Structures are given as structure tokens and as C-alpha cells.
Amino acid sequence: MSAESTGEGITVGIDLGTSNSVVAVVQGGKPVVLADEEGIAVQPSVVAFGHANSAIVGHRARQQMVYAPENTVYSAKRLIGRRYASDEVERMKRMVSWGIAEGPHGDARVRVQGKVYAVPEVSARVLAHMKEIAERATGQKVSGAVITVPAYFNDQQRQATRDAASIAGLKALRIINEPTAAALAYGFGTEKRQHIAVYDLGGGTFDMTVLRMEPGVFEVLSTAGDTFLGGDDFDTLIAEWLRAQVEKQHEIDLSENVTAKTKLRDAAERAKVALSALPAVEVRVPNLARDKQGRAVSLHLRLDRSQALHLVMPLIQRSFLVVDDALSQAGLATAQIDAVLLVGGMTRFPPVAEAVGRYFSKEPVGTINPDEVVAVGAALQADALTRGFDPDATVLLDVTPQTLGVGTVGGFVEPIIPRNTAIPTDAHKIFHTAHDNQTEVRIAVFQGESRMQADNERLGQFVLDGLRPAPRGETRVKVTFAIDADGIVHVSALDQETGRAHEIAIEASSNLTKEEVKQLSFQDLGF
Ligand code: AMP
Questions:
Q1: Residue from 346, 347, 372, 376 to probe ligand 1 pocket by mutation (most atoms less than 8 Å from CB)
Q2: Which of 123, 224, 389, 434 lies at a CB distance of 3.0 to 4.6 Å from 326, suitable for a disulfide?
Q3: CATH number for domain 10-228+326-398, candidates 3.60.20.30, 3.40.50.1970, 3.40.50.2300, 3.30.420.40
Q4: Residue extent(s) of CATH 2.60.34.10 domains in the chain
Q5: How do residues 181-205 score in pLDDT, each as one tens digit?
């Protein structure tokens, strides 16, 4: 086995998806997708909790979903790095069968069987499962990974993904963007100069990324996305339609029936997938519920592709607003795009692929496997990073997806690093004290495109203290905002007068603290 090693173990690439996850490794210079003992590579990102901290992950967890919906956590990635008090969490509450609770940092958490889990803890279960698959398949210990995230993920979501890796006992060598990973895999072994557009529609998120590929260099020109547009939303629309039909037919109300709704979601997803291959499907759900007389109600309906398309068309149309935005940010017209890659399970749905083809007036590349390509790109990057400096290695230049700014009076945001700036990057700003004898400065940091604080993601508040008491305006502090190659934000400050560097503490972040991550670590828990 010639997989690259970090000293203690090999490093792999993991596509930690909303619906499914895949692990790959580079062996003998070639990327290989790894499968479990049953030969299955694509693993559902589903965690089914049992008694006393036990959990099963992957296919077996997915199978138990309809029997124990309250204990089976799926699509947890949609919650990662999110605040409890947010529109997204409200939407999630209506969608999932498991519980959502507020954590001590105001973060959204998963509640199962009366126990509350931080979302990175749930994702860590999935990562640990992928690590185990890789260890069994390669016969080697896995110590590090390049993990992919949607390009549009903000700092909190990236940081939380890193935390998940730490909890799972994996060193996250790098967090890279899913579409960039897909382009790396596509470009592997070719030297062609071209512009590539990656349309990535997964289970929970949509991203559009435009790259320029030259021999030895992959440069992301722009990225745009919607972290709440994905296959789950297609399932919701179809399931709601199925529910409306059965409620009308049997004069029942299933709006509060969690088990029936989970069965309908499951049926909706299966129907959607089946419609990718067939023009019409029979949707059957036996013993869905009981009617007012206590008789068993079953669902049996025919759904054809055009009906399904009618239901989900608004979602497909929404994706093209994002595509328009990414192209205009890259300064390119559709005719300048040489290759269109489709990534994410939802692009297997023919109406999606057809709409993309029509938009670009070009057939999307048909040779890539949308389920595996992201993990393959991550494995290639893991390999490049473990090899260290290699003049032949491809250089990857990515961008920050969302504008970073600081809060100003009146609830506004002043941009500091605009979106689509190449990373790593930094920018600084001089802050003055506003009052006499002021000894601390508080700087609230936001990510997002609005000029209003309320419409952006608040990353946290940085507190700079220990300033020398002086008349207002006299103390000047240079604050540097840096975004690293993982897309994670770092803030540091320098007292202009004394040249002293200040420690900056972050408050009001929704992320776990270092101590919490350590406490949750599976190694410490004896997993
Ligand atoms: P991903 O997050 O990339 O794994 O994408 C998962 C999403 O793709 C889920 O919503 C799946 O239902 C959907 N999906 C996977 N395969 C198909 C298929 N053949 N046809 C339609 N949707 C699919």
C-alpha cells in the first residue's frame, strides 16, 4: 500500500455531505474511492442513536430511519455552525423528525432521547465512520484528512467542521470547497487551459463556482451559493404534495404525525430518485396512518416526471439566480465557459442537468461521477499537502465566499475583505478610542453581503483590552483581519503607540471552545 503518510498514519480525502459521505485516498499516484465491507462507497450521513451514547452510522442508520425517526439524525450538516435563533433553524424544525435545541453558545444543537449533542459531535460520528472504512479498506491507520465543505460555508460552519474532525480524532489538514475539489479531480492529469463552471446541487446546499485552469494552477474566480437549497427541499415539496393528496382523499390531518411525515419524506425521496431513471413511478406507503374511524390508511399514487418537475421548478429556477451572480462576479459570459461540471446527487435528476445544459448552451461533462468526484479531489489535495513542497504539484487558489466586515454605529457593517477575494488574505483597519480613558475596544465581526448587521452572520465580538487610559482618539489600534487557506477568520491587533500586540478574545461566537472540543473527543470518551 503506497498511500501517503503523515508519520503516524495516512491522510485521506473526505466528502462530508449533507446526505452522503465518501472517502478516497491516493495510492501509487492514483486516487481510489474506498468502500465498506459490503462494497458500498457512498455512505448516508445518518447517525442513529441508541442507548448510552451508542450510535450506528451510514447504511444501517439509514435503514432504521422510518422505524425510529426521532432517534435518527439526518441532514445535520444543515445545522452546523448555525445559531439557534435563525430563519434556517426555524425551517429545519419544520423539516426534520429529530429535535433541535439551543446550546449554551446560542448555537443550534441536536436533541435525541432527551440528550443534547453539539452538531460537530454528530458530524464527528460520520467522520469517524468514514475513517473506519478507510482504515479497513487500506489496512492502515488514518490520522489526517482533507475535508470538503460547500463553497458558500461561512467561517462558523468551517470552524465547526474542523471541530468535528478534532472530535473524531482526525487532523484536518485543510478544509477545501467541494466544487474546487471536483475541479481538481476533473483536471487531474490534463494540462489544458480552460474556464470551468461547477454546478453543485447536493442534499442541502447549492454552490456555483467558476475556475480558471492552467497547467499547474487552479484558480477560483468566483463562487456564489445558497446554503438552503438542495435535494432536501425537493423532497419537502414532493412530500407535502403527497401529504395533501392523502389528506384530501381520507379526510385526515397528518400535520402533527411525525412518523407519517417521515414515511412521506422517505417515499418522496425514493420517488424523486426513481424518476431520474423512469418517466413515472408508483408511490406506495402502506400503513401510513389511521383515519378517524381507526382504519389503516395507505398511500398509493402515480407520479410522473412532468408532475414532479412542476412541483420543483421554482427550486431549479432559484439556482440560476446564483449562477448568474457567480458568472458576473467572474466577469465571464456563458460562452466563455469551456466545461460545465455537475456535482452533487441532485444533478442526477435529469431536469436539473437539462436546465444546466440549456443555460450554458453546452452539454455538461458526462464523464465524472457526481457522488465520488469531490472525495477524489479532496484525496488529491491531501496527497499534495502530505508530499510537502513539490514543484510539480498543482497550486490551488481559492476565494472567500462572503464579505467580511465590522459593525459600525447604527447597525451598519463596513466591509473589510470583499467576497471573492483570493485566500489566504488579510486586511487591516485602524480603530481609535471614542471616549476619554477608554481601556478596551469591542469589534463585532460579520460575514455576508448586506450593509445591515441584522441580515448578516455575526461571527462574534472581539474584545481588545489593556489599552493605556488617554484622551479619546489618541489611542490608535491596528486590527488585522486574516482569512486562512481554510476560509477561517483570524483577528489580531497592534497598539500603534506601543507596538504591543494584543491578544484578542472572541466572545459571543456560536462555536465550541477548545476545551469543549477536547472534552467531546472520541478518544477521551473511549470510542
Ligand atoms: P449529495 O449531498 O451530493 O449526496 O446529494 C444528495 C441529494 O441528491 C439527495 O437529495 C438525494 O435524494 C439526491 N439524489 C441522489 N441520487 C439521485 C438520483 N439518482 N436522482 C435524483 N436525486 C438524487
A1: 346
A2: 224
A3: 3.30.420.40
A4: 400-511
A5: 999 999 988 888 999 999 999 888 8
